[in-house]
Amino acid sequence: MKGTVSICCLLALLLLQATAEVEEFDPVLRDRSHIDETLRLATEEKATDYAAAIQKLRKVYHTSIKPMEQAYKYNELRQHEISDGEITSKPMVLFLGPWSVGKSSMINYLLGLHDSPYQLYTGAEPTTSEFTVIMHGEKIRSVEGIVMAADSSRSFSPLEKFGQNFLEKLIGIEMPHKMLERVTFVDTPGIIENRKQQERGYPFNDVCQWFIDRADLIFVVFDPTKLDVGLELEMLFRQLKGRESQIRIILNKADNLATQDLMRVYGALFWSLAPLINVTEPPRVYVSSFWPYDYAPDTSRELFKREEISLLEDLNQVIENRMENKIAFIRQHAIRVRIHALLVDRYVQTFKEKMSFFSDPELVFQEIVDDPDKFYIFKSILAKTNVSKFDLPNRDAYRDFFGINPIANFKPLTSQCSYIGGCLLEKIEKAITNELPALLSSINSGKQPGLSSCEVTGCGEKPKNRYRKN
Q: What does 302-316 look like in DSSP terms, one character per residue?
């Protein structure tokens, strides 16, 4: 009897000790009120003004830019077709980086999904094998990639070109959330070195490039304990060339290290990335710990908090400027379409000038395509039109372009005019110099968008460059 009592007492003591340890090590959740305050989520947006500006932008694109795209098959050169879904889409924030660095945890923390049934799965092992798009919806539900690609009202319909294997690795999550009313998050599979692309079953780098080209902000996340830079990471940074102003480096889980060790890791990170980011101004680096639990004791708590608020302000800047960035993006697209049309027109004119009754059309045009500088194709564009030499596309791209599009399929620009619709070149130039800057100016001044009041809105004003850091 005494032995039984002793065993019961011992078990009770062990149970009390275990309970005390659990209470002692129970992690404390961090206060998230600063997220809503910094992003101004409680502030109601002027949906009417935004919708009116979007409708004006769609009208300019469909009436002045898209006809030129279709006439000169611009999408077959750049393979970047702009849909209505892309014009009306929210800013996209893309999360990239090696596996298990905290990308999914960071999204869970920003959206407050911790311990909710729809939080993104996280773990120490590679957990995210899909491209996950977290977007706003009236109710919580998941959307299969096949459905997302088939829905033309979304901006993801072009992803169908990457095949069914990829669409099975694409998933959307819709939920009613104030932040998702203004921005869309995209979580990506972690980069695993020494893994061949063929093992994924779809062109991983091409898919990443598609998202990179459309992202308004790109977070490249690193773990301070895993700073290895291998071939896949080098390939990723090559794909980010030209988008440096949109890249933000996140040194996550920073409270796992002492301050001195963190300084060494910070230097090692720049040492590893310096050969991959060949720009004068390095990207902004945020050092903090982005997950719902409190910072580890004896770490730079105040520094991490300030870094987190700076990142949120950066994100808020993208949200606030989303309409200006969208207009600037469409204008930049229009400039590229115009340059393409001028080049194709010059190829057509040169071909007609060099053709004679006894000439072989294929040989004549092959000579022009192989050596365009001999016939001053590109130099004539620079001399006769308001085109920067830095905006000219690659010459070799037109060899492939005309390989699938015979020159006989194209008309000169002078023939692309109608009595009712006007000339395609005049319409796209008017959109670039007048209509889009006027729309941008009306948004900045808080006036109703207008397309023809140049004296009021200041036509010809240069729109804000979406590729420059604010």
A: HHHHHHHHHHHHHHH
* Cβ contact 95:106 at 8 Å: yes
The pLDDT value recorded for residue 123 is 60
Burial environment of residue 100 by CB neighbours within 10 A (0 to 12, 13 to 18, 19 or more): buried
pLDDT band, residue 457 (cuts 50/70/90)? very low
**Average pLDDT, integer, range 187-193:** 84
CB atoms within 10 A of CB 10: 10
Reported as a pLDDT band with limits 50, 70 and 90, residue 390 is confident
Q: Which of 266, 267, 256, 265 is nearest to 299 (CA)?
A: 256
Q: Which residues pair with 286 in a beta bridge?
A: 250
Whether 428 contacts 338, CB under 8 Å: yes
Q: Dmax of the chain from CA atoms?
A: 119
Residue environment code for 400-413, b if the CB has 16+ CB neighbours within 10 A, otherwise e: ebbeebebeebeeb
Nearest to 118 by CA among 103, 131, 135: 135
Cα separation values, 198 from 187, 294, 414, Å: 21, 41, 48
| Helix, strand or coil, per DSSP, at residue 174 | strand
Nearest in space to 145 (alpha carbons), one of 121, 173, 181, 177: 173
| Residue 13, both tokens | 């003591």
> Phi and psi dihedrals of 365, rounded to 5?
-70, -35
Mention every residue, 6+ apart, whose C-beta is less than 8 A from residue 286. Answer: 248, 249, 250, 251, 307, 308, 310, 311
Nearest to 65 by CA among 408, 325, 327: 327
Return the structure tokens found at 402: 């005309």
- In the chain, DSSP finds a helix count (H) and a strand count (E) of 20, 10
Q: Long-range contacts made by residues 123-127, C-beta under 8 angstroms, separation at least 24? A: 124/100, 125/99, 125/100, 126/99, 126/100, 126/189, 126/190, 126/192, 127/99, 127/100
Angle 322-354/436-445 helices, nearest 10 degrees?
170
What is the pLDDT at residue 6? 56
Alpha helices in 296-371, H assignment, sequence order: 301-320, 322-354, 361-370
Distance CA 235, CA 229 (A): 10
How many CB atoms neighbour CB 305 within 10 A?
15
Pairing mode of beta strands 284-287, 247-251:
parallel
Rounded Cα gap, residues 182 and 177, in angstroms: 9
Answer yes or no: is pLDDT of 393 > 90: no
